[in-house]
């Protein structure tokens, strides 16, 4: 399971933002918190740089200024954002991996990598019950044809028997 933790910073990270970006950040500060970034409220309300006081980390993956700016850019370009109530419900149901929450690319890559590592690998023998469970689970997915990295999750049976 992927868990994102917060690391409080001794020296806050200063983000240079435009007035529009400041307003957007202020409007969606919960999205930043939900991604592990804490923003200094006084710097957000004032003028000049906005200060990031905590950054996310997970195992060996650390995040920084570029990831916060990428998240701001995602919001700026219209990434769908959940309401506070929806985020609370999503966090209870899916923990930090709720797919409807805007995420920096590093977080999405981390989720994809960990999902693949825990999946059924090629060559693994499955019994009848396991095969039925896999097919039933695939039927419930929005895009079952590829893993998050783009690797195929299925083979056409006709191609297997062409030899």
From TrEMBL:
<dbReference type="InterPro" id="IPR037198">
    <property type="entry name" value="MutL_C_sf"/>
</dbReference>
<dbReference type="InterPro" id="IPR038973">
    <property type="entry name" value="MutL/Mlh/Pms-like"/>
</dbReference>
<dbReference type="GO" id="GO:0006298">
    <property type="term" value="P:mismatch repair"/>
</dbReference>
<dbReference type="InterPro" id="IPR042121">
    <property type="entry name" value="MutL_C_regsub"/>
</dbReference>
<dbReference type="InterPro" id="IPR014790">
    <property type="entry name" value="MutL_C"/>
</dbReference>
<protein>
    <recommendedName>
        <fullName>MutL C-terminal dimerisation domain-containing protein</fullName>
    </recommendedName>
</protein>
<dbReference type="GO" id="GO:0016887">
    <property type="term" value="F:ATP hydrolysis activity"/>
</dbReference>
<dbReference type="GO" id="GO:0140664">
    <property type="term" value="F:ATP-dependent DNA damage sensor activity"/>
</dbReference>
<dbReference type="Pfam" id="PF08676">
    <property type="entry name" value="MutL_C"/>
</dbReference>
<feature type="domain" description="MutL C-terminal dimerisation">
    <location>
        <begin position="2"/>
        <end position="94"/>
    </location>
</feature>
<dbReference type="GO" id="GO:0032389">
    <property type="term" value="C:MutLalpha complex"/>
</dbReference>
<dbReference type="GO" id="GO:0005524">
    <property type="term" value="F:ATP binding"/>
</dbReference>
<dbReference type="InterPro" id="IPR042120">
    <property type="entry name" value="MutL_C_dimsub"/>
</dbReference>
């Amino acid at each position: 399971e992927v868990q994102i933790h917060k690391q409080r910073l001794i020296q806050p990270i200063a983000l240079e933002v435009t007035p529009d970006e400041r307003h957007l950040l202020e409007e969606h500060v919960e999205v930043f918190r939900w991604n592990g970034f804490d923003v200094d409220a006084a710097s957000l309300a004032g003028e000049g740089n906005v200060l990031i006081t905590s950054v996310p980390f997970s195992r060996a993956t650390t995040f920084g200024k570029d990831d916060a700016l990428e998240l701001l850019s995602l919001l700026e370009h219209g990434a769908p954002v959940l309401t506070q109530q929806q985020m609370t419900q999503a966090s209870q149901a899916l923990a930090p991996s709720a797919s409807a929450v805007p995420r920096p690319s590093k977080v999405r890559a981390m989720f994809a990598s960990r999902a693949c590592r825990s999946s059924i690998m090629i060559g693994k023998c499955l019994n009848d019950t396991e095969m039925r469970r896999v097919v039933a689970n695939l039927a419930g997915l929005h895009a079952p044809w590829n893993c998050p990295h783009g690797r195929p999750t299925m083979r056409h049976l006709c191609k297997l028997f062409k030899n």
